[in-house]
UniProtKB/TrEMBL annotation:
Domain UDP-glucose/GDP-mannose dehydrogenase C-terminal: from-to ranges: 317-418
Active site annotation, chain numbering: 263 (nucleophile)
GO molecular function, one term: NAD binding
NCBIfam families per UniProt: NDP-sugDHase
Key words of the record: NAD, Oxidoreductase
EC number: 1.1.1.22
The protein's name: UDP-glucose 6-dehydrogenase
Family: Belongs to the UDP-glucose/GDP-mannose dehydrogenase family.
Binding-site list for NAD(+): 30, 35, 86, 122, 155, 266, 331
PANTHER family: UDP-GLUCOSE 6-DEHYDROGENASE TUAD
Signal peptide start-end: none
Lineage: Bacteria, Pseudomonadati, Pseudomonadota, Alphaproteobacteria, Hyphomicrobiales
Organism: Pelagibacterium lacus
Length: 437
């Protein structure tokens, strides 16, 4: 199959590379000159485990290439995937679909045959219908087919998730299987991946509702963690005991600083907006969104409390910048919220992350970056674990004690060895448990 992908971000680049890996001929297009130049020079502009090697292998085998401008979309192109960003709009509620509209315009201009457009970007219910209408208006001479194929990969495991997903969801005009998409995903289907064929609107809603449900799980366990702190229970044990129930499952039951990233926050509010359009109230999701905002806004207070009431003039080391481990993505990162709030409270903050850099966050201009966790701890009154990179959980508390001035640890991920740190003389403040427990 010959495939063109619009957008070389976390989803587009992984999709294009993995589709090439399973045997298709793929051209990945992006309007970002720096991104395409980097890819053309053999660099991968995002961090995702295994991606660099897979890109190199497929480029070398001639199945994967990159371009700044769409090639002519003639009848030899089997499908055009749209994987551009759909961030929160300026009102903070509805999805900003301007990049998507731009991509559709580009397709309309480059098409010389009726295209099959596959929408991988996460979009509100009804957008595929709107794309079909738009194509009809821009190119009345053609008859574009629009299919919804939302992506469920997780950053940090994106390649593995794409090649071995729990399911592939494909929404077509009439809900019937589409032969081109069947052929594209045949290698995965043959390996046992279930394909869920449905209508376009159902497919779009499956994606938004799935993210909203997972976000609700996170917000719920965080509220239970608050209760644990007051009532003397331990959230790690509570979550484990709950997760052993097959009806609940252990995933997304880790109490922490609140959910972030480029998907859950914006998809939750976009789904609320969609529901409102149809006069439906999603009260549980409203509460999830509010609860998570409150949690992220309260992270600095946790540090202030651990520091006996003030961080003014204190040196605070923050371990982690990315919104979660395994990625360099800092979009909507709780760590970034926390650092901004600590700086506003007068703290001198130094941070480190194995992969992420807080580019594009003007609030963090005065942030000092350390080379590694021990460098970060140097002279600190307090150290905060903000992102659960596995290497942070292996830190030597005695070596940290030598570096630091103070003995306070705030573990927002419950990722550190409490006994080891207590033995080294630290007071450790976790989430959903009593200090030092
Ligand atoms: P991203 O911001 O990393 O990448 C989007 C890319 O699209 C950018 O490089 C941008 O330059 C490019 N672009 C914009 N307009 C273009 C055009 N007209 N032609 C070609 N390229 C264009 O975004 P992302 O994180 O990959 O997310 C893409 C979509 O996938 C979003 O809708 C998102 O909600 C969804 N999604 C993301 C994830 C994730 O974990 N990041 C997971 C599932 C779904």
């Amino acid at each position: 199959m010959r495939i063109v992908i619009l957008g070389c971000g976390y989803v587009g680049l992984v999709t294009g590379t993995c589709l090439a890996h399973i045997g298709h001929e793929v051209v990945c297009v992006d309007t970002d000159v720096a991104r395409i130049s980097a890819l053309a020079a053999g660099e991968v502009p995002i961090y995702e485990k295994g991606l660099k090697a897979l890109v190199a292998a497929n480029v070398a085998q001639g199945r994967l290439s990159f371009a700044l401008v769409l090639p002519e979309l003639d009848s030899s192109i089997d499908a055009i995937f749209i994987a551009v960003g759909t961030p929160a709009g300026g009102d903070g509620k509805s999805a900003d679909l301007s990049a998507l509209a731009g991509a559709v315009e580009d397709i309309a201009q480059a098409a010389s045959a009726s295209p099959l457009i596959v929408v991988k970007s996460t979009v509100p219910m009804g957008v595929c219908d709107a794309i079909e209408t738009m194509m009809g208006r821009l190119r009345p001479d053609l008859s574009a087919e629009v299919v919804s194929n939302p992506e469920f990969l997780k950053e940090g495991r994106a390649v593995l998730d794409f090649l071995g997903p729990d399911r592939i969801v494909i929404g077509t005009d009439d809900g019937a299987p589409n032969p081109v998409l069947e052929a594209i995903y045949a290698p995965l289907a043959e390996a046992g991946v279930p394909i869920h064929w449905t209508g376009r609107r159902s497919s779009e809603l499956i994606k938004h509702a799935s993210n909203a449900f997972l976000a609700t799980k996170v917000a719920f366990i965080n509220e239970v963690a608050d209760l644990c702190e007051k009532g003397g229970a331990d959230i790690r044990s509570v979550a484990r005991g709950m997760g052993l129930d097959a009806r609940i499952g252990p995933a997304f039951l880790e109490a922490g600083p609140g959910y972030g990233g480029s998907c859950f926050p914006k998809d939750g509010v976009a789904l609320l907006e969609t529901a409102q359009t149809y006069g439906v109230r999603l009260g549980i999701l409203e509460r999830t969104v509010a609860s998570n905002l409150q949690r992220r806004g309260g992270l600095a207070s946790r540090v202030v409390e651990a520091m006996d009431g003030s961080v003014d003039g204190k040196r605070i080391g923050v371990l982690g910048l990315a919104f979660k481990a395994g990625t360099d993505d800092c979009r909507e990162s709780p760590a970034v919220d926390l650092i901004g709030d600590l700086i506003a409270l007068g703290a001198r903050v130094v941070a480190c992350d194995p992969k992420a850099m807080p580019y594009g966050h003007p609030a963090l201009n005065s942030l000092a970056l350390a080379l590694d966790p021990y460098d970060c701890a140097q002279g600190c009154d307090c150290l905060v674990l903000a992102t659960a990179w596995p290497q942070f959980s292996r830190l030597d508390p005695f070596r940290l004690a030598q570096m630091m001035t103070g003995r306070t640890i705030v573990d927002l991920r419950n990722g550190l060895d409490v006994t080891g740190f207590a033995t080294a003389g630290f007071a450790i403040h976790g989430v959903g448990r009593r200090p030092d427990s």
